[in-house]
Write a structure and sequence with these properties.
Distance between the termini: 22 Å
Radius of gyration: 20 Å
Number of helices: 6
Strand order of the largest sheet: 2-1-3
Structural class: mainly alpha
Number of strands: 3
Order of helices and strands: HHHHHHEEE
Helix content: 55-70%
């Protein structure tokens, strides 16, 4: 498995929270009262999961390692942009906490301001994740050897041993952010939860010598996603 795989899996949880925030902002804009418990839960998720757990691995391990590599101008530009967006998100979450405190104390304008801020924060994360998934994570892996990638993956696992994932996945689900929307309901199609690649048994995987018509269950146990190299256990049936 490539070291970016766990980061992309975490993206799916953060995306679900972004949907929850955007939906709550829309309801609040329509006049629905904002539960005083909602903002503290969002702040907790964003600070401890999205920032400390997710951004922590990106900044302290992946980004730090990339800064010593001969990055292309495009990749260095993306890296600087991503780091800047991390800083921007932290500021927005800090302001959200302040608005949450004001809302809990009865400020009549705080709920609306917080809802609009959550809408903007959700949009920031959706665009941020799209950039990482589509234009940054996979290409920058070319700057590392296979051995270096293995070491990085081990560092990620060691980092995660000090963090909690299940708690925040359940938190998002409890707030209305259940399973991600499926892309299709056709039979014989499996989606990689890491990068979104679709394995279609009608097409097989010619790159790996898998002929058309091969059911997913019959793929070799060592078969991996052709995009992110995640294993079969990272796929879900559509």
């Amino acid at each position: 498995m490539m070291p970016i795989a766990p980061l992309m899996i975490e993206h799916r949880t953060i995306e679900r929270m972004a949907v929850v925030m955007a939906e709550q902002a829309e309801r609040s804009g329509g006049g629905e009262e904002l539960d005083i418990r909602f903002i503290p839960a969002v702040v907790d998720f964003m600070r401890n999961y999205a920032d400390r757990t997710h951004h922590g691995k990106e900044e302290d391990i992946l980004f730090r390692a990339l800064k010593d590599r001969p990055l292309s101008d495009e990749h260095r530009f993306h890296l600087e942009r991503l780091e800047g967006e991390h800083v921007k998100a932290r500021g927005m979450v800090s302001l959200l906490r302040t608005l949450g405190d004001s809302h809990a104390m009865g400020d009549p304008t705080a709920a609306y301001q917080a809802s609009m801020l959550m809408r903007d924060l959700a949009e920031l994360y959706q665009q941020h994740i799209a950039l990482e998934d589509r234009s940054f994570f996979v290409p920058v892996m070319e700057y590392f050897t296979a051995e270096e990638s293995e070491v990085m993956l081990a560092e990620f696992k060691d980092f995660d041993s000090r963090m909690i994932h299940e708690r925040y996945a359940k938190l998002v689900e409890g707030m209305g952010g259940g399973e991600p929307m499926r892309l299709s309901h056709e039979e014989g199609r499996w989606r990689c939860r890491v990068c979104g690649f679709i394995y279609d048994q009608r097409e097989g995987d010619p790159r790996a010598g898998v002929p058309p018509g091969t059911p997913f269950q019959d793929l070799p146990e060592d078969w991996v996603c052709p995009v992110c190299e995640a294993g079969k256990d990272a796929f879900e049936h559509l």
